[in-house]
Design brief:
Layout (H helix, E strand, L loop, with lengths): L11 E2 L1 H9 L3 E4 L3 H6 L6 E2 L5 H4 L9 E4 L4 H12 L4 E4 L2 H7 L8
Parallel strand pairs: 1-5, 2-3, 2-4, 4-5
Length: 110
């Protein structure tokens, strides 16, 4: 039987914790759509839209912690569940890019 993990299985973290984890070597994984990514993203983030994530898992280093982000935290929670089931150590950025931006952290455009 297919089982989705309870949200409590995926730690939600605040922007300041996400930034600390990134500075310590964690990968920030942005799962938003390309148009959202182009509007602005966390510097140094890796872009893998949620719809393509299952096919791209092999591109991620399983030894690295992941901080998953979307616009508000919902798609990143779905992505976090996929990654958690695949054995990755994952954290969901609570409130997503909206919370990151409101907290005054940098955003870059590519």
């Amino acid at each position: 039987m297919f089982h989705l993990f309870d949200r409590s299985d995926i730690p939600g973290i605040q922007p300041e914790q996400a930034r600390e984890k990134q500075q310590a070597g964690a990968i920030v994984l942005d799962v938003r759509e390309p148009s959202e990514w182009q509007e602005g993203h966390i510097p140094g983030a890796v872009h893998m839209p949620l719809g393509t994530l299952p096919q791209q898992l092999s591109q991620l280093d399983p030894s690295k912690e992941l901080v998953v982000v979307c616009r508000s935290g919902n798609r990143s929670m779905a992505a976090s569940q996929i990654l958690h089931r695949a054995g990755y150590k994952v954290h969901n950025l609570s409130g997503g890019m909206m919370h990151w931006s409101r907290s005054g952290y940098p955003i870059t455009k590519s």
